[in-house]
Amino acid sequence: MNRTLGAALLGVAFGTGTSLVNALSSPYSPLGAPLDGTLWGGAAKVLSLLVDSGWAWAALAVGVGWLVGGLVRAGVAGVAALMAATAAYYAMDALLRDEPLSWFWPEVLLWWGASVVFGSLLGMVGASIRRPGVIGLLAGLTVPVGAAAQMVVLPPTPTQAAISAMLWAQALVWAGALLGAGLVIARFVTRRRTATA
């Protein structure tokens, strides 16, 4: 139960942070307007493109699954993290936009449904990273390959004013995906050599 609560708290931090970064990156929000055209505003745009993407939310569920360990516990933790992140994201959006939270309920319910399905699977993938062999390798490659696939299939498409932020975000995702995949493969190769030695 404590691990599930910890996963939910990580989800709250992630969802709240994502909403806040989105507000800081927008020239139309009261928080972001003063930053528009500044270095901090540009950094917020890049960060917003990174954290408000499907692969980053998937990485949250995989990460808590890895932290919790055990397939069943990891699946529950993945669901808890994504559901809490969704609730926190929309609650913070409502607060920052000064809009009723009830306006966001259709989206919250939709993403909670997705959280149950995908959070459980991704949490179990995270727990599987600890396993030796091909299963651990494939589980470890899930987030880097997912991030790279999203850059190919559904890359960030900001307004013309944020082209440089988009290019920075894409470069960071590609670098992180390549580095992550390289580390996972290196760990796999090292374990195999140690096992056969």
Highlighted features:
mainly alpha, 0% strand, 197 residues, 7 helices
| Helical residue percent band | over 70%
Number of distinct beta strands:
0
Total DSSP helices? 7
- Sum up the overall morphology in one term: globular
Round the Cα radius of gyration to an integer and report it. 18 Å
Structural class: mainly alpha
Beta fraction: under 5%
Order of helices and strands: HHHHHHH
What's the rounded overall pLDDT mean? 89
First-to-last CA distance: 40 Å
Low-confidence stretches are: none
Summarize the main sheet.
none
Any overview of this molecule?
- Helix 1 runs parallel beside helix 4, helix 3 crosses helix 4 and helix 3 packs across helix 5.
- It contains 7 helices and no strands.
Which helices and strands appear, and what pairs or packs with what?
Blueprint lengths: L1 H24 L13 H13 L2 H15 L2 H27 L7 H24 L4 H21 L9 H34 L1
Helix pairs in contact: 1-2, 1-4, 2-7, 3-4, 3-5, 3-6, 4-5, 5-6, 6-7
Short description:
This protein is an all-alpha fold and 197 residues long. The protein has helices spanning 2-25, 39-51, 54-68, 71-97, 105-128, 133-153, 163-196. The longest helix is centred in the C-terminal third of the chain and has 34 residues, at 163-196.
